[in-house]
Records
---
Amino acid sequence: QLDGYSEMVKPYDPDRELPVFWHVPKSGGTTLQDLMMHCIGMVGANEIGGPYAADTGSLKVVRLENGNRYVNVDMSNEVGIAHA
């Protein structure tokens, strides 16, 4: 058991829980990420939002041409993580 994580058998409580997606390369994660963003409407925070980030600006949700939404931050590096 991992402290701080819920069991998947329990219903999701959006008032108390934050979903975390741990992307393991070559495991279908990109497909799952696309499904979560495009089909379920979740907002992503990863490297895709990096080109829309301002150095010191506030965080905002940007909508791409395909309809997917991402936070304007690059979570693939320390500077982006600090910005978030």
Note: The chain has a mean pLDDT of 84.
---
Amino acid sequence: EKSGEGGFEGLLEAIAAGGAWEQFCCSEAMYSEVFPQPWDKKLTAFQKMIIVKSLRENFFTLVARNVVSAELGGLFIESPPFDLAACFSDSVSTTPLIF
């Protein structure tokens, strides 16, 4: 892009106008909120992560999970079920169990 903004062209003006953006920016669950229209459809999951990190850095790890889920699938953010009995039966006395 000549302007160097990529998919963010017009975003600054949209945020400055307030309205839905003001509610979004003040939300305590910004990482799980739907972006104001039309930005919800215009931006990729990665671009949304950049915006959330810029606005509220403390939500970065939570929104990073959204990116992984959107790009790779929910399988990559869910922990597998833990079965202590199966782990114990697979172990031997010379190999420690590490959690």
Note: The longest helix spans residues 60-72.
---
Amino acid sequence: MMLCNLAIIALTLCRRSSAVTAPNDRSVTIPPSAAKSCRKEVEEVKIFEENHIELMRLAVCLHVNGNTNLAFDMYTLIRHHFPTHSYVLVNMGIVHLKQGNVEKAQELIEQYLTEVGGMHGVGEITDEEALKHGSPCHANNIHKQDCTNALNNLAAAHITSGKNSTAVAAYLSRAIEIGDESMLGDAYANYGGHLAKIGDQDAAADSLIRGFWISLRKNRIDAAIALLLRRAFLVPTVYSSLVETDDARIQFRQRIRDITVLAHNGGNNWMEDKGDLFRLDNYEVSIQEIQGIPPLKGKLQNLSEIQSPHFYVHYNGLYDLPIQKEVSEMFALLCPPSLFEVSPHLARKDRITKQRMKRIGFVSSLIGGNEPHGLLVLDVIRSLKGLFQFYVVSIGSKTLTTEFHTVSDGAYEVGYDSRAARTLLMSLELDCLVFAEAMNEAIVYSLGYQRFAPVQVLVMGSPVTSGIPTFDYFLSGDLLEHPFRTQLEA
């Protein structure tokens, strides 16, 4: 299962103070639509056109407003003009990670750490600011947040690739050694994800709750809710008995209900942590602090920040539709109405009468590479090509094979960019959208709540249906179904 950590990555503004004269052999054109959202930063660049600080601020503004490619061009320009100011490499790495280019992201962030003396700050330094003030990879350095952010982002890249858990632990442990508590919400979040992945659910829950409180105290409500959800979703990956399975499911449902109460009322009437949501036996926080949590309704602006849905809950072989519906209803409370966006083409009057071949879309995070999901989808497209137009959208870092581009009418890779995925799916004006799975990646799960086609189907990648109301059908098979599944009770 791939974890995407972009939602908890910090985009830190460059704080450098020296001005460097830039050569004039490269430039980036900012179109009016992008300039409008970063008007202040554009004006500052016009005044201080040779100052890399203002260029960096503009680049970050473009980045956080969704102009990722333009931001990357700006970062590249800054790196070209000001090669001794290294932090831009981290933000370039973030762009690559969001686009699914994990190895390139690792390479750029590792280069930044090399230029500031390594993660222990004892190597050769070429970064201009680090030459003045020492490596930021020391706990007493004034720019230590730069290093903690870089280490956290590098760990995120390794978590996403899923290949080096030792490196993940080393980078995050070093970030925690260097940073102040208030800087470490993202690091604890990633560390919780890492611990969950290696099977230490209790330590993962403690780390995620720690990140929750840091984010909440900094008024990062979106990030805080995502971390609370990630803690709520933690269940054992393997159970030792049916009794343990039942207990875990009861606790899971209680946590979902607790968050539903927090959505409506905040912590105002909170009295008891029945579902162990807040880990009161392990983390020092008072009931009074819990009671101070504001109502969370409509505050989760980006559902993909949860990184991974409740993947392991629906692998118990039981009747899970009631649980799935409770989770879906909880998200309907936590997220704003934009979660349930409807593609514009569905409201057009000419949609029904317009004569064209029906368009079928497939979307998944497990459709690239040699994943079985992708091989099955390929066979469907080969068999029905000529009867329908087929479009394939891959989420995450898995690259679509050449055959997808050959046999389909459109094959696309959007990395971990949820905004790009939504925009693309709307532009395709589909008649049917098939989700090959929904529980492996938060972006795919969040797309399921939106209406991109009059018919939306969830198929074999999930053993049970999702509970999401915008899925019209769930397709399974005889070999996937226990004959008495629907008679079992959760």
Note: Residues 1-24, 486-490 have pLDDT under 50 and may be disordered.
---
Amino acid sequence: SKLTRSRSRRDPDEMWQAELKQMEERLRLQMLTATRPYDAWTSLKYMALLSAFGVCAALCYPLLWVGMAVLCFMPSSQLYAPPLVVLAALGTVFGPGMLTIYYVNAYLGVPLTDLGVSFIFAILSLAAVTAAEKYQVKKESDRTSGTCGRQLLSLWKYSITPIVALAFVLQFGWPGALLGATSFVLVLKTFRAGLLKLCWAGCPSPGEQMRVLLSGDSFPPKLDGVQNFARNTIQALVRDGHKVHVFCSNGSPTTHLAPENYGATVTRGPGVEVQPKHKITLPSPHFLVALMRFKPHIIQFFDFTPCAIFVVPFLWWLGIPVVISHHSRIDLYAAYVPGFIGDYSPQVVRAACEIVFPLVTGHLLIDGSQKDQSWFQGHANTRFWATGCDLEFFHPSKASRETRSICSNGRPDLPLVVFVGRLSPEKQVDKLIDLVKVTNLPGEPELCRFAIIGHGDSWESIHQEIGNRPDVY
């Protein structure tokens, strides 16, 4: 009882700081292991972990939605919103699958062994075809292979594999089972072709005005670096005469800096607010409505959002080109999930990356170091999207002696090194401490002054180490 009373008297800030330290340790561990190449055993472990979370999410599906509804009225606990959204989406995927297996087994009389054989065949076949496709890409890069091999792999992947897998499930003789499975696959392909015609404008001809659909969670009123990328992309595409449509959940047509102000049209779907002015867009039928209304040539997702995780497989099935620009390390953000779920969140995210990334037409990397991350290795169409600077906004004519004197703590004659940004561990801002200490050594002339501008979870630790030094503003 004394222990309970002492715990109840603990300062909530102290509890949060202890939780934050645990998450930072988890973050550092993830940063050390993220560049290790995948091996078969690691992949299987992460896939099993993802499946376990999916099954648990399906069993607790109603509770997850209740939890998200409760969080809308508890701003102090909204750090739990992102994992709840992902778990709810996993439950949406695994739940119908589990119900289908139960119905097929209980009411159609299909043994679980046949279902298992069908599933194992499909997985092994897809894995073999994926490996062969990577080998094919390597041969094509060496100019030693034509298109015949690629066509055969596509036929096996998209036609033979589903037909044989379905034939294992059908409970009659093999010739009839193959015929029935073939008929079902043909009907499904016909439905897909009709839906694709409603949702896709096809490949644009040279000089044709492109229709680009952009999606993500960083649209106004949320303001951050990704939002700047999105706004500049909209402006550049519209300036060049292309049509732009945005699918998101943030803001309204009257929001300051809304996409409508720059010539884009917008479809807003449901989302969950995880921070003030920041919503996570949910995968919903609104996205399909946006596809049918706009009929894009290509789709770009700004970051690997929860919506992208579950929409990309659908777009891959349809055959619509998709590009993801990677602005954030979502595996590092996953380390910031409180509680025991955070111990497994990065692994679940990495499993999702390994499943979804091969389905994407191309990846745009913002940071050169991203190429070393294991989930981008082996993808043929991975390119860098170079960042830039607004030369009108950041111009030498706007230099201010007074501001330089303030930021240099009264030494405007010395070189001034400035950091501007969010002070968070995933940005490795703790290296600023070492940089300051090794640059201006005690007892030696100062080489420069430092100005650190920003706030975040790492602000307090940085301020404790170097905040009282005269060479730091």
Note: The mean pLDDT is 84.
